Amino acid sequence: MRVLILGATGAAGVLLIQEALAASHTVVVYARSPDKLAEEIRHDPRVTVHKGELDDREALSSAIMGVDAVLSALGPSVSRGPMHPKGTPLARAYSLIIELMIGHRVRRLLALGTPSITDPSDKFSLRMSIIVNGVATLARTAYEDVVAIGETIRTQGNDLDWTIVRVPLLSGANDKNLVVGYVGDGKTGIWVTRAGFASFVWVKKAPLITLP
Fold first, then answer.
1. Among 32-46, 114-128, 149-163, 197-211, where is mean pLDDT lowest?
2. Distance in angstroms (rounded) separating the CA atoms of residues 27 and 46
3. What is residue 62's DSSP assignment?
4. What is the DSSP string of the chain?
5. Is residue 202's pLDDT more than 60?
6. pLDDT tens track for 91-142
7. Which residue of 11, 113, 114, 167 has the fewest C-beta atoms within 10 A of its own C-beta?
8. pTM listed for this prediction
9. How far apart are CA 110 and CA 125, in angstroms?
């Protein structure tokens, strides 16, 4: 399988690349600053690197052409927090990504999300409500962009086999154990590792994944 990875220079994106290569897939990386990737990734013969911005239709189209799936670790930068740009730039990028995927007949989309994106199977959770409301208060523009990502994928991605993998608080540990479910189901917690996210796949749902 040939997969396109977005957000590949971040910690979760690098893990997605490693998981894809370990599964014997070939990888296409689309990044604004691909030089941030380790040399062993950039020089791996199984990896093709495209440089470009998320609003560059021609460059993004070239990267999507010929792939079997798009795996995205795109999300607001935690370090920028309340400084995330206004106008939901990531959701607008997803709109273009989905349009190009449909045009190139690429059906599979796996996208990083958070519990700010709700799902009909969710139930009330006090702990998760505190976390989501905290983000909405302290990093409003980032919160709005994440919510808009979910809406964009659901409304424009009817012709795709999409997955929104919602993660709560992320850990850098190497633990791939995880629980899959929904907010308030009595099973899921508030933490998951980036390694767990990178190893997870589901179809046309927005599950919550956490550490056991």
1. 197-211
2. 6
3. H
4. -EEEEESTTSHHHHHHHHHHHHTT-EEEEEES-GGGS-HHHHT-TTEEEEE--TT-HHHHHHHHTT-SEEEE-----TTTGGGSPSS-HHHHHHHHHHHHHHHTT--EEEEEE-TTS--TT----HHHHHHHHHHHHHSHHHHHHHHHHHHHHHHH-TTSEEEEEE-SEEE-S-----EEE-TTSSS--SEEEHHHHHT---SS---EEE--
5. no
6. 999 999 999 999 999 999 999 999 999 999 999 999 999 999 999 999 999 9
7. 11
8. 0.93
9. 25
Question: 113 by DSSP, 3-state: which?
Answer: strand
What's the half-sphere exposure (Cβ side, CA atoms, 13 Å) at 53?
4
* Cβ neighbours around 161 below 10 Å, total: 13
